[in-house]
Each structure stands twice: as structure tokens, then as C-alpha cells.
Please model this.
Amino acid sequence: MPQTPSATNPPSLKDRQRTELIVIHCSATRATMDVGVQEITQWHIQRGFDTLGYHYVIRRNGELQNGRRESAIGAHVRGHNANSIGICLVGGVDDNNRPENNFSNPQFATLTELVRQLKQRYPTARILGHRDLSPDKNGDGKITSNEFTKACPSFDVTAWLEQQDLAPQVASTT
Model:
């Protein structure tokens, strides 16, 4: 999927050497806000990024928009950008800016298809939510809701993967 230089793909972007993670995010917007690559790019530039930090954005109607070229290092999860792909679902908060799984069925359908494709290209990559990369503050080996740095993407990605039959296959011990 080569992409030519553009506002979301300036020539200064460097390519990843490896892809170990596929990280699902939300835009932290209400369900009534339909934003896309253009608006999120502006937000990220205002925050000091070179351009949009995500590789993909999935709009409310399920439209998949390309952000950074897939091979480029992202700017979407501190400490993991050099080895990950970032996918952003538009939505994720309620009217009081609290985390809410308010994503549409078309968004989840597009996410399912995109994750299937990415799994084919990067079969060993782990798929998780941004919140799952929060620090394990109590050292028990599990990241629980009280440890989330962010609630993003406002749903349990592991449970969603299992529902979509996208969870990693565990080798049988028998």
C-alpha cells in the first residue's frame, strides 16, 4: 500500500523496522461528532506533532481513511510508536467526556475487516487497546481499570477480538 507524500505523509516520516503491536484508539469525541483524518490531523499538529499520529481512522459511517503510510513510525502511543500501527475509531466519550463505547456497527465492521487484513500482513503482532499499554502500577502482571492512563478506546479490545474470532490461537497442550 505505498502512499505518496502528502499532509499526512510528509517525506520526513521514517519507516518502522518491525511491527509488534496493532493499537486501537478512539478520538475521544461524542457520538454526534463525525470527524476524520483532516480534523484529527489539525488537532495533532496543534499538539506539536508533524502530522496525524494514526495510520488509519474509521469514521462514524464506517469509512476507512488512511493516515500515515502504514510503514511509517506513528505518533499514537508513547514508548511504542516505533513498533506499532495505530487505528483510531471516531467517538469514545459521552456528553460529559466520560469513556463510552458509542461506536457504530459500520465502524466495528470496518475495524473487523482492517484487523483481519493487518493480521495477515503482521501475523505475530499483538492487537490491543491504547489503555492496555498503561503501566502495571501494582506489579501484579495485569493492567486493570484503576491503572489505565487513558480509557481509550473505551471498550475491552481483548473481549472484542474473541467475539470476532480474531483472538490469538493458543496452542493445545494435549
